[in-house]
């Protein structure tokens, strides 16, 4: 089996798909394994495939060792905290003038994952900064002007490193066939890149021209997502936000590029193979290879673009125990006329598989689909 990767090209096995990608740097598909996820053994840290992952993201061996300790099916908090423990963040020590600022973030801003005690370590600083940014409430006024400028410069570098660390973590979890872990890591990565937590009303803040006050007016009117806002007539937008023409038309034009993703799965038939199935020691019944049709697309009239870019998407298919069955990554350009793939998944009769499809850096594009075989 070739090394697994989510984000970069690699000569991985794609034989389980009847729709072959022309270039794995554009699309990557991941077949299933029967092994269960487990922390990476220390003896494998220097193995070629894990070393390849580490070098791809230009990370240190201590960081690989730290990321590999994450347990099976981690939650958001564990993923974000583990990523912040990367050795590369040690170059961002807490300066004396930042202590009150970080204490204010931790104790008085309502961040979801506060630390225990005082912020003393570099990873505390990274964890708190990321969370206050994702709240979109602005930084507390507990730091000098010069200190704020220096912290802003540092934060740009912090996010560059955090992007690499989260992608590396996703690859590690993928190698361990932890589908739930991959899905959660992609959720955190998407939220960090969008600077908004997935699943919150604040996704409206991704729209140019909408700040906290306008978001509140929309939410109070029952408009809580960008999809809902995009479905309004221009004059309703102007009425809700007390703006004059051509504000509504301009907003509608901007929102026309927000990706409206579609996802559908259906089982075609059971594969006929010489073997009787793949026996899982934790199950009384063997898993059988099933051909599943995967249909991907978007509801926009033209290929969607957001922030002047054509977004990339990821599809993760998990078994009912959270194991990784399939992974695909590709640009929305590949779905212009609907993309159909036929993939082979080793599942048990009656098992429910869960598919998660979303744009990498845009909150609010997430769609889910559950199929019972």
UniProtKB/TrEMBL annotation:
Region (Disordered): 1-47
GO MF annotation terms: 3'-5' DNA helicase activity; hydrolase activity
Gene Ontology process terms (BP): meiotic cell cycle
Family matches, as Gene3D superfamilies: Sec63 N-terminal domain-like domain (1.10.3380.10)
Top-level division of the source organism's lineage: Eukaryota
Comp. bias intervals (Polar residues): 1-25
Protein name according to UniProt: SEC63 domain-containing protein
Organism name: Trichoderma asperellum (strain ATCC 204424 / CBS 433.97 / NBRC 101777)
